[in-house]
Write a structure and sequence with these properties.
The chain is an alpha+beta fold and 363 residues long. It folds into two domains: 2-45 and 149-216 and 321-361, FAD/NAD(P)-binding domain, CATH 3.50.50; 86-144 and 219-312, 2-Layer Sandwich (D-Amino Acid Oxidase, Chain A, domain 2), CATH 3.30.9. The protein has helices at 13-23, 61-80, 96-111, 122-128, 148-161, 204-210, 287-293, 344-361, and strands spanning 2-9, 29-32, 49-50, 84-85, 89-93, 118-121, 136-140, 144-146, 165-167, 172-178, 181-186, 190-198, 219-228, 239-241, 252-255, 261-264, 268-269, 302-312, 324-327, 334-338. A hairpin with a 3-residue loop joins strand 11 and strand 12. Helix 1 runs parallel beside helix 5, helix 1 (13-23) packs parallel to helix 8 and helix 2 (61-80) crosses helix 8 (344-361).
Length: 363
């Protein structure tokens, strides 16, 4: 039986950043990943936006870790050559009522410590995004984009460089608790870990049950995208968002690090955690929300894009739940890093630091 100080279940950005941080504290760590490669679920099926930290209630983990993680992530990307761009974002308003909502959003961002937020007029919008339909906007200069696939690869490389061992194609099938930790059973081997980090994303509820941890539910919420055709990509320079709605930040416009322009995501709760394609929304369903942002867009300018599934830890009847990052209340050998949806990508390095601190405090 192999023995490690820490086993991390899940090799998305949360798991990899946690493993990197744990290994940096000179603890032995392995990462179990059911897929043949890391980051194949939520980590690379998203907009790739580096969020500033505007949207989240003050005092929540989402607010704090987004601001801390964003600063860390820009530095990490610059150090290791991960493609990224601090391009800024406009959150737009179309009438006086929406301008009042922008003011409230700015107040929340200011309270969270987001730098440089500014309410701007049509003239400012014309200088940055002349094709965008809006009368006013909230300008966030700290928002940006990152190539999520390259981020995953770099997190894996730096975690391995710190001593973490990556175990691809390794599914957790059982676990037993003893006096010193958990005995993890996979299809190939048995591993004893003094602490286990549950960073299993969409499957965190199932993994928690397997580990003898507390019971909770992950609610899969699919988001779908369309893309602007290549001839229309010059309409957009950076990031343009509507005001947020109950289950997400709204169908927004993202110009990726590769120069593609995505519109999305939608937000639809569903039963399956692996269903990215069944009953996809037709492209014409995106025309109206697209025109709310880009006034001259037509159906011919859009084509079907990708999709992703958020790992929400609250049901459709609720609009917010914070990250679950803490010692498990049923099993003291388990550290939960669960319910990590947006701004999880932005926050990943700060999440990893918090997880490593919890591991260390457990002795």
């Amino acid at each position: 039986m192999e023995r490690v100080d820490v086993a991390v279940i899940g090799a998305g950005v949360t798991g990899l950043a946690s493993a990197r941080a744990v290994a940096g504290r000179e603890l032995s760590v392995c990462v179990l990943e059911r897929h043949p490669r890391p980051g194949l679920d939520t980590s690379t099926h998203n907009s790739g936006v580096i969020h500033a930290g505007i949207y989240y209630p003050a005092g929540t983990l989402k607010a704090r870790l987004c601001v801390e993680g964003r600063r860390e992530l820009y530095a990490f990307c610059a150090r290791y050559g991960v493609p990224h761009k601090k391009c800024g974002k406009l959150i737009v308003a179309h009438d006086e009522g929406e301008i009042q909502q922008l003011t409230q959003l700015k107040q929340r961002g200011d309270a969270n410590g987001v730098e440089g937020l500014e309410l701007v007029d049509r003239a400012f919008i014309d200088r940055r995004e002349p094709a965008v339909s809006a009368v006013a906007a909230l300008w966030s200069p700290e928002t940006g984009v990152v190539n999520a696939e390259e981020l995953v690869k770099t997190l894996l490389r730096t975690a391995a460089g710190a001593g973490a061992v990556f175990l691809p194609g390794t599914r957790l099938i059982g676990a037993d608790r003893d006096a010193d930790g958990l005995i993890l059973r996979t299809e190939r081997e048995t591993i004893h870990a003094r602490a286990v980090v549950n960073a299993s994303g969409l499957y965190a509820d199932e993994v928690s049950r397997t580990l003898g941890g507390e019971t909770f539910t992950i609610y899969p919420c699919r988001g779908e995208y369309v893309e602007l055709t290549p001839s229309k990509r010059t309409l957009v320079n950076a990031l343009v968002y509507p005001l947020p709605h109950k289950h997400g930040l709204g169908v927004h416009i993202v110009k990726t690090t590769a120069g593609e322009v995505w519109l999305g995501p939608t937000a639809t709760f569903q039963d399956r955690k692996d269903d990215y394609e069944h009953n996809r929304m037709p492209v014409d369903a995106f025309v109206e929300p697209a025109r709310r942002l880009l006034r001259d867009v037509t159906l011919d300018d859009l084509r079907l894009g990708g999709s992703g599934i958020r790992a929400k830890i609250h049901p459709p009847s609720e609009s917010f739940a914070d990250f679950m990052i803490r010692r498990d209340r049923e099993n003291p050998f388990v550290i939960q890093a669960s319910g990590i949806e947006s701004p999880g990508l932005t926050s990943c390095l700060a999440v990893g630091d918090l997880v490593a601190g919890l591991v260390e405090s457990s002795g």
